[in-house]
Amino acid sequence: MKRSTILSTLLGALALAVPQVEAQNVAVKTNLIYDALANINLGIEGKLAPRWTIDVNGNFNDWTFSGGKRWKHWMAQPEIRYWFCEAMHGNFIGLELHGGQYNIGKVNTNFDFLGTNFKNLKDTRYQGWYAGAGITYGHAWMLAKHWNIEAELGIGWSYTRFDRYPCASCGSKIEDNAVHNYFGLTKAALNLVYIF
Fold first, then answer.
1. How confident is the model over 6-40, as pLDDT tens digits?
2. What span, in angstroms and rounded, lies between the C-alpha atoms of 45 and 70?
3. What is the pLDDT of residues 56-84, one digit of tens each?
């Protein structure tokens, strides 16, 4: 399925899920952390009830970096949020799903985290897909009538299937259709939000 079709489907589902489109019910956002990492991203959040919203974020990176580095991916991340005070202000918790595809290699990392060996990214390339779920916690601060800043962290689980190659541009596989389960950070956001 084409990436544009996936993104259009997600945005259409959000539009159908939001019962009313009027002031203070819909917001668009960009994750400043992803922006700093050269990931194109966009989020849309819609109010479902006084304390409930649905948030859909997507990001995409198809840039080619020097030295044979690859960090190509696309991801969609829908989330249901419960706000402790009122929608789009203050503290919230959420349940999120995430999924996408990746092509990552020749990235110099030197750490292991909860059973995932990120050191392998230095000498090998991974190409595959993933899907998972997590829980989130965040806070939104009002900057002005239509502007918020929002911080959020999420932890969860991801299931992935991948092919592994010996280097960023080599074609012979080391592993075929391998499986890995990841548990850890699944979301980190510092969003600049515009509320209609």
1. 556 655 655 555 544 444 689 999 999 999 988 99
2. 31
3. 999 999 877 777 777 889 999 999 999 99
**For residue 68, which phi and psi values (nearest 5 degrees)?**
80, 10
Those residues whose C-beta lies under 8 Å from the C-beta of residue 150, and which sit 6 or more positions away, are 29, 138, 139, 140, 141, 189, 190, 191, 193
Residues 6+ apart with CB under 8 A from 163: 126, 127, 128, 173, 175, 176, 177, 178
Each residue's pLDDT tens digit, 174-190: 888 999 898 999 999 99
Distance of CA 83 to the CA centre of its chain: 20
Residue with tokens 């009122």: 86
Please provide the size of the chain in residues. Answer: 196
Alpha helices in the chain (DSSP H): 3-17, 32-36
Q: How many CB atoms lie within 10 A of CB 168?
A: 19
| Beta-strand pair 70-83/175-195 | unpaired
Q: Which long-range contacts (CB under 8 A, 24 or more apart) does 125-128 make?
A: 125/70, 125/164, 125/165, 125/166, 125/167, 125/168, 125/169, 125/170, 126/102, 126/162, 126/163, 126/164, 126/165, 127/102, 127/103, 127/162, 127/163, 127/165, 128/101, 128/102, 128/160, 128/161, 128/162, 128/163
